[in-house]
Amino acid sequence: MPATWSKILSSALLTLLCAFATAFIPQAASAQQLAVSHKSPFNCGKTFNANNWYPNHSPSGSIDWQDYGGDDINGEPVRATAAGTAYFNDAGSTSYGKWIEIRHTDGTRTRYAHLASMVRGAGSSMSVSQGTQIGTVGSTGGSSAPHLHYEQRTSTGAMDTSPTVDGVTVSLGQRKPVTSTNGCGGTSNPYTPEEACGSGYAVIDSAALTGGRTYLLYNSGNGNNCVVTMKSTSLGTPSPVSAFLEPQGESRTTDSGNYGYYAGPVRLNAANQCVKWGGSVGSSSYTSPFEHCG
User: Fold this and answer.
1) What are phi and psi of 123, to 5 degrees?
2) Residue range of the domain that includes 268
3) Residue 173 exposure: Cα atoms within 13 Å on the Cβ side
């Protein structure tokens, strides 16, 4: 074959191979564009110690979040470090105890364990945004003291042993204080459902609304339920929002009006009763069936 034709065919073959690669082989740049950035799992401005124990921590590379500077972490609201779908689990008295896995938009995963409470029951799931409250810090499962066990994993489930949270990388053997920027900048409600309902209440369920979320809480000390609807838009500006609670067999109690941050709290005793609950933000509303009996 003449050398000229050989060069022409080689050039044509190279062009075809490049076209094939462009069309069918995933590009590194595209994967990089999908990568999520994780915030601290706590309220804006909160500082806690991130401990990447080594070598006696299982799995290696996971973070134990603990008290810092006298701030007690027990009962602290736990928030999604990035958007995704949250899956709720309960391992009982062993291992993680109450725990949640969030599968993020880039395929990576985070885990939050030893929780005192979760906003959904075990076996359920829900979509979350970065900053959505998913539970509270506790000491369930194989835990000797209140703390949050936190993991960042790849899409295959492998551990990231040097996770980065709020711009701080915590490598094996390191202990660093991290201040949360999760929800800072005026984009998140400065109040929590627990703050609205008061001491002793813990979230047991919630439902998403366009422009907010409605929460059901329970106080095991007095048998009271509490419902509060938190806004996520038009914060500080009065706009229509409501919350209601209805123990089965009794009349419904509703709080509604033009509020800046939330409606409620609506508190009623419902020990050993089923309850119907819900609320609204603007025209978006949620009404539960009678549930959470007992």
Assistant:
1) 95, -5
2) 193-287
3) 1
Domains in the chain: how many in total? 2
Nearest to 215 by CA among 160, 130, 281, 140: 281
The answer to whether the CB of 209 falls within 8 A of the CB of 201 is no
Query: Phi/psi of residue 30, each to 5°?
Result: -65, -45
Closest CA to 268 of 250, 280, 288: 250
Question: 139 and 212 share a domain?
Answer: no
Per-residue pLDDT of the chain (294 residues; tens, 9 = 90+): 454 444 444 444 444 444 433 333 333 323 333 468 899 999 888 899 999 999 989 999 999 999 998 889 999 999 999 999 999 999 998 899 999 999 998 999 999 999 999 999 999 999 888 888 899 999 999 999 999 999 999 989 999 999 999 989 999 999 999 998 887 755 567 788 888 998 888 888 888 888 889 999 999 889 999 999 999 888 778 899 999 999 999 999 999 999 988 999 999 998 888 999 999 999 999 999 999 987
In angstroms, what CA-CA distances link 131 with 18, 38, 249? Answer: 42, 10, 37
Does 200 share its domain with 283?
yes
CB 105 within 8 A of CB 34: yes
* 143 in the same domain as 52: yes
Residue whose token pair is 């003449």: 2
Residue holding tokens 């119907």? 276
Residue 36 resides in a domain: no
Note whether 174 and 62 are same-domain residues.
yes
Task: State phi, psi for 13 to the nearest 5 degrees.
Answer: -65, -40
Which two three-digit tokens encode residue 259? 């509020």
Q: How many residues does the chain have?
A: 294
Distances in Å between the Cα of 13 and the Cα atoms of 3, 9, 24 are 15, 6, 16
